[in-house]
């Protein structure tokens, strides 16, 4: 998506280069004739006008974005109502459960007519791959070894979505889970992913990559959500894995975007940061008539 900040910076660089060129030219020739002076002044004036115009366009774009958020805020109750009625949602935390984020997600579900999350799992990271291997017995032995960590992540993601028989979660919950709520009795219709720790490396990154890929390929909406003021954004990692993302979950627009994505709306990256390449919220389609 084109960013006016880069356009302004480019124009400024050209302006500075032009001035340097003038000074160097004067130093070398000792003088500049009147015609050349007039042309240079005209060029400088034209560049200055372009800078002013670019700044005005940037200001207008910012005002339009703010106006869009205001419209969403005012229309929020009507736009979100019943979007998720009857849906079952799971939440996966990478790191400890954050009360503020949990509150924002559960408010989204409530405002959209859904029930409380069917299940919540908070992963302890980093993982200890050697200890995990020792717990993988029977049919799970094929997931042993660092080279299989992504497949193990995919297996856990599939069980998180499908519910029912969950041998991998049964074997590894004591090692991988620091907080949980709800059972695996039912399948879910959507998953929200939240990261409350810094980005991971090595074995843990390999494992999480498989987990995210598994959620993205699950056939149901899977959305990474964070606040607009998070210190280290997880949006690039989630987006690369194929998850949709929302980067302003604390705001009405962010909660609406999350509800729309979980209801099956157009996937993408939404919010207020430069990484929100698809806009503030997904396309808002009318709900089917109840008649």
Give a structural overview.
The chain is of the alpha/beta class and 291 residues long. The protein folds into two domains: 4-78; 84-270, Rossmann fold, CATH 3.40.50. The protein has nine helices and seven strands. Strands 3-2-1-4-5-6-7 form a seven-stranded mixed β-sheet, sandwiched between helices. Strand 6, helix 9 (252-262) and strand 7 (269-270) form a beta-alpha-beta unit. Helix 1 (4-29) packs antiparallel against helix 2 (34-80) and helix 5 packs across helix 7 (202-216). The longest helix is centred in the N-terminal third of the chain and has 47 residues, at 34-80. It is globular, with a radius of gyration of 26 Å. The model is unreliable at 4-8 (pLDDT under 50).
